[in-house]
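Service request form, structural biology core

Requester: graduate student, group of Dr. S.
Request type: structure prediction, single chain
Budget code: on file
Notes: please return the result as structure tokens.

Sequence provided:
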Amino acid sequence: ALAGSLVGKKDCNSQVPHLAVFTLTPVQELIKASRKMRDFWSGSWLLHYLAAKICWRLAEIYGADSIVYPCLYAQPLIDHWLLEKYQDFRPWIKKPLETSLLTAGFPNVLVLVLPKDSVEAAMQTARQTLIEEWRKLGDETIDFLQTEKHWMPELTRDTKSWSGWLESQWQTYWSSLPLVAITQSE
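Core staff response, request fulfilled:
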């Protein structure tokens, strides 16, 4: 990750790698709202899915080695998406079991090492990915509720209360610090 943040730089000293942390919340509210075990699992898996989508997008742009935490190696959702997109990888990546795709394991905090001039764009990409994926899930949910369940036909994806709820659900935070070598003078 450190080497990757310096690639292409004529003077490595001019581009200090940064440790960037991206957080999405409210995790506690999601869990606190659970009334049954399936609610708890659904909330945990939803958070897992959204964090995995953010990692997937950041890895596509900045390289998988830029993501320090969580580790993307042997993550069932990541492996599933890799095999969907790059079928030539089949000899090296084992197809995840269906049950492993239902296991929640991605955290709400992501840690990356990036060149200084990429940090802000990466954090904006992370936020935008979260919003886009959340909207897709919201659209699919409202469509399902109305076509399959015939639930509240007056509520549409364009209704102010529905779209307002989708827009205000997630808060994101990020920070970064330069990774500077400390030298000892004699």
